[in-house]
Amino acid sequence: MQRLAPALRQDNVPLDLISLIKTILAATKEISFRVSQAHLGGLLGSTLDENIQGEVQKKLDVVANELFKDILLESGFVKAISSEEEDTSVAGDPNGKFIVSFDPLDGSSNIDINSLIGTIFSIHQAPEDMAADNPDMFKQPGHKQVCAGYVLYGPSTMLVMTTGKGTHFYVLDRTHGGYLLVERNVQVPQDTQEFAINMSNQRFWQQPMKNYIHDLVLGEKGPRGKNFNMRWIAAMVGDIHRVLTRGGIFTYPADNKNQEKPYKLRLMYEANPMSFLIEQAGGLAMTSQGRIMDIEPDSIHQRVEVIMGSKNEVETCLSYYQ
Ligand code: AHG
Ligand code: MN
Ligand code: MN
Ligand code: MN
Fold first, then answer.
1. Which residues carry a binding-site annotation?
2. What's the whole-number average pLDDT of the chain?
3. Per-domain residue ranges for the chain?
4. Among 19, 123, 135, 197, which one has the highest count of C-beta atoms within 10 angstroms of its own C-beta?
5. Tally: H helices and E strands in the chain
6. Pocket test for ligand 1, best of 151, 264, 269 (most atoms within 8 A of CB)
7. pLDDT digits over 82-127, tens only?
8. What is the pTM for the complete model shown?
9. Ligand 2 centroid, distance to 53 Cα (angstroms)
10. Whose CA is nearest to atom 16 of ligand 1?
């Protein structure tokens, strides 16, 4: 099995980007260890603080964020970072060539039940004409990402990453302490009989999504003429990993549960990086209005509707909006 750095060189990834990726992965190895310690490390449970999203922070949200932030800002490769757990962007090295957005701990509600969690990251080139403390640097669409990935702290610790040359799977090999390439150019099957959505929000969805899910649930007796199964991990990393592995459609649609917040997932450090991975694996990543990676962002914590996964199924879902 190939080690990470040679695999990246084979894809002609520039050396400075490889160095940044290695820095990010150093942080994930530390988080992976802390996660596995659970009760033993005293890191379960909540803090008394809320993040800018209005969510109570778990201890592990904060620890993972600090680990990532410190290692990235000290690296010299990064001009600024933005994170789910930071109110605004944080300046790094003025000469850093890259900016990094991240969700340090995705699936926070799974921490205390010893279930799937992960880290999501997205890398863009740093604009040369903006100061390191200017958050406008992050207002770049997803199609300009130079790298995106997530690390899944599951039964094995896996890295799923793209630099625009396909989506590849790696596994953390604890015997030598590095990530090994286990699957190159993963492909999402175009058709599926599996969907992922939080069904408890059904009454808040828009009519097209209600109609689409209604037809999936009718199964072979309905217009789709086949049965569908449902899965919901409550961690986007887990649900997207299943979609990349065996296909499926994952959606967090618009809802009117909270009038000020029609969408749940965040564009910069959830939707964009996952869209890059899904598209590089031959899937589609959309809102009901268009391609996620074409959205021109207006703020760091912007939220967005998400409909992604198996190409034909995403197209069928979107046809309900026409
Ligand atoms: P985070 O833990 O980083 O705040 O993200 C949680 C997100 C996402 O991972 C998941 O798909 C979704 O929230 C789960 O939403 P529900 O609580 O509606 O299940
Ligand atoms: Mn959160
Ligand atoms: Mn998240
Ligand atoms: Mn998070």
1. 84, 103, 105-109, 198, 264, 270
2. 97
3. 4-183, 194-319
4. 123
5. 7, 17
6. 264
7. 999 999 999 999 999 999 999 999 999 999 999 999 999 999 999 9
8. 0.98
9. 7
10. 234
Q: In this predicted complex, what is the ipTM? A: 0.99
3-state helix, strand, coil in the chain (%, to 5): 40, 25, 35
Q: Using most ligand atoms within 8 A of CB, pick from 59, 106, 113 the residue to mutate for ligand 1.
A: 106
pLDDT over 70 percentage in the chain? 100
Task: Judge: domain 194-319, CATH 3.40.190.80.
Answer: yes
Ligand 1 centroid, distance to 234 Cα (angstroms):
5
Contact yes or no for 247/118 (Cβ under 8 A): no
Give the residue whose CA is nearest to atom 17 of ligand 1.
234
Question: Which two tokens mark 274?
Answer: 């996952």
Neighbours of 9 (CB within 10 A): 12
Confirm or reject CATH 3.40.50.720 for domain 4-183, answering yes or no. no
Question: 232, 231, 297: which is closest to 270 by C-alpha?
Answer: 297
Ligand 1: lining residues by beta carbon, under 6 Å:
55, 84, 103, 106-108, 198, 234-236, 264
Contacts 24+ apart (CB under 8 A), 197-206: 197/230, 197/232, 197/250, 197/251, 197/252, 197/253, 198/232, 198/234, 198/252, 199/230, 199/232, 201/255, 201/257, 204/255, 204/256, 204/257, 205/253, 205/254, 205/255, 206/253, 206/254, 206/255, 206/256, 206/288
> How confident is the model over 116-141, as pLDDT tens digits?
999 999 999 999 999 999 999 999 99
159, 149 Cβ separation under 8 angstroms: yes
d(CA 157, CA 315): 32
